[in-house]
Amino acid sequence: MSVTVSPTPTLTQRFSVVSVLPTMVLIAWPVFLIGCQAFTGRPRPGELLRFLGTLNVAQVSVLALLAVAIGSLFHPFQFLLVRLLEGYWSTIPVLRTLAPLGVELNRRRMRRLVRRNDGRQLRKLYPPDESELLPTKLGNVLRAGERQAGRPYGMDAVLMLPRIYPVASPGIAAAFLDRRNQLDVAARYTAVSGLMAVSGFVAFADDGAWLTLPAMLSGVTVLSYRAAVRTAVSYGEALRWLFDLNHAQVTQALGWPVPHDIGKLKDLNRQIEQWLEDDAEAPPGYRGPDASTAQAEPPPCDDTAYL
């Protein structure tokens, strides 16, 4: 998914979970490497224990505050981090070269699902249009959720999510936000463990069995990425729920009564989106603020309704 459509929850909730804990882990890693003298020879755990023993409460407090400060500094870059894992690599020279290979691998996986007629998995993992494939599995799962959400009602999820989230019922909004937070946590740990693994291979390059540690961190990176993909599937489901249960509220909030005919509803929503995005002519039937309380269009008369 293109996470530009994410809501803006309170800083305290997402910042504490998404930023501080992974940042503290990332800060503890160089402390470990320096403390056991990994860069100056064979690591000596005893030196780490002596180093930790020299730290007083004030120094530990400074490290904790440093983690919070660094976390707050990099919190706005969470969007860029997730986009990097999604496969938006057009501005990164090396990754831009690898992008076509990733797209081709995902195209082959997608076609295998088509041949197996596994429509359920296909809808969860890949966007409907093959031309929209991204080079990473995470990116394709999120884009699939984007394209599926709102589609039954003629809505573009990317355009309408910032408008539908504020009018969503508290329960579904909370569930949606929880899954978004889980996705951010998994993405952050993927990046943190990956950085730790790379620096570990550098620090322990000549230290034999110590290379097991960065190898384990590489495994953690893979598991974190897989967790991010699974969470992205769950996030896509929550995105669809958001539109399924609240599409009428956003149409009314924008000033139009909700038609009872699904075809008319789709046409109206597409016209509203053109009006919002392209400054096109507003659709007829605008009622302004009264639309949310006005009676919707009467349903078509059905003489058999009471038989």
> What helical percentage do the residues reach?
55-70%
Would you count the extended β strands for me? 0
Q: Order of helices and strands, N to C?
A: HHHHHHHHHHH
Number of helices: 11
Radius of gyration: 25 Å
The percentage of residues in β strands lies in: under 5%
Shape: elongated
Helical/strand content category: mainly alpha
In whole angstroms, how far apart are the ends?
Answer: 47 Å
The largest sheet, given as strand count, sense and whether it forms a barrel, is: none
What are the low-pLDDT stretches, counting only 5+ consecutive residues below 50?
Answer: 1-12, 294-307
The average pLDDT value, as a whole number, equals 82
Keywords:
membrane, transmembrane, 307 residues, disordered C terminus, 0% strand, mainly alpha, 11 helices
